Amino acid sequence: MIADKARELFESFFAKEIVDVSMTLLALFVLINVLLVSATMLTYVERRVVARMQNRIGPNRVGPFGTLQGFADLIKLITKEDLRPSAADRVAFTLAPIIGFVPGLMIFAVIPFHQGWVIADLDAGLVYVMGITSLGTFSVFAAGWGSNSKYSLFGAVRGVAQIVSYEVPLILAATSVVLVAGSLNLERIVEAQGIPFIVVQPLAFLIMLIAVTAELNRTPFDLLEAESEIVAGFHTEYSGSKFALIYGSEYVAALGWSAVMVTLFLGGWKPDAGGFLWFSLKTFGFVLIFFWFRATWPRVRIDQILGFAWKVLFPLATANILVTAGELLIIQSVFGLDPGEAVPATGLAGMAVVNLAITGVVLAVLPRLIGTRDDEGPANVGLAAAVRVKG
Amino acid sequence: MVAVAAFWILAASAVAGALGVVVARNVFYAAIGLVVSLIAVAGLYVTLDADFLAVAQFMIYVGGIAILIVFAVMMTAQLRRGSQTNRLWPGGLAIAGLLYLSLVSGIMQTDWETSSGAIPTSPMVASAADEGVRLPDVLFSTYLLPFELAGVVLLVATIGALVIARDDSAPSL
To answer: Which residue of A has its CA nearest to B46?
Structure first.
């Protein structure tokens, strides 16, 4: 490993503490720059991918195939005048984009890119992720309230209600993964995945995918910036570099949550081929799922969104925890394991078979239980909502 | 050395944030002060090697309670001109003074065990590696009653919130 060689070289000159600190700082510097450039590139990728899905061309003028479009937009935004509405609250208005940007970056502190390749090897890594990302709510609120504009405030009220609601199924779905892995440490969760947890915990994966989409405020849950109703929602009053921060933070957060999802469900760096590149590939591939959602689905109504979280996802996630815990009890007694010990591959396979069957039944039955009547039922989502808007 | 510096910075931020909560006229700034104070306390837990407690503090207080306070603030109309005092202030001062005195006497009278050796093995400050194993064992045996009571309190609060917020004239979701 290059890192080990470099460390040996430096340690012959400097004290160990200095090398430790500077290696961490170097890793942070590289990581943050990679993330910022990736976020800028992702704005271009999203526009191209969505355009292709909608049979359009998308940006193709700046640079080869338009690849420099994101950087052109960024430079344009940064060179714009930094406007602030005179009635806005100065502190909240300035602070909001900054607070919003940080959590997405901070997720990566605990993400294991490869075995041992993690900046902060936290034992409570997953709880850290859940805690740090809840700061995003604060940013949305500060932006909406600080702008002193009714559209901003509407967007912020929607956003806070939505994020707070979806945090519940998000954490509960992650809990069932923690149960199987027997650890909150993300590296150990990856190591526990003899079989990727997307197969072992398919229901938790689906719940978490929906909840993460809501947490990221992406389509079909992007109604805190629903441009057809409330201009641009919580960031209506933002322009220039502050808007660039808000816009960029969305992509950094998407990358961060994709990394978390890959770590929890897709086996992280496993199977060990290609080192951290394999992990990065999975993460970028996962971001494409969010782009795919955006190109496919129309926006959902706010009461439908909140109802879906509390009446569908929350009970499902709770039931999933109960089922998982029961399965674990059986597996532990069959294999003679201690609580918290890693489940062997055969146990995981048995779990996968049962859980896949359960998920199949849930997916078959659920649409019949919810959204049957036009004005009732929380999950009157997708096509039904689109049809009703038209007719 | 680093730990001492970290302690002073975190302690100063915690006190400054707490002062902000009390002093700021604008309720939103008070909420920001609360968040700063809570994050600083989480940082203090890290310096005590209680990583899980720090992260839990962050998730529950910053991610949960502070956000709920923010939500309440958002519904407050008189946000900028809000007053921190009303005519009940003498009573409030008396209660705050009593609380302060009892806290100080509690801190002074407790026999704080200090040692330069290993980290104490109490469940709340145990090193992070042990916590994951030990915390649930303690939670569901020794502290089962408080745990269940907390659950009941939360349930009552949820039902209460629903009853208060319920508007029978509006169509249900």
So the answer is: A122
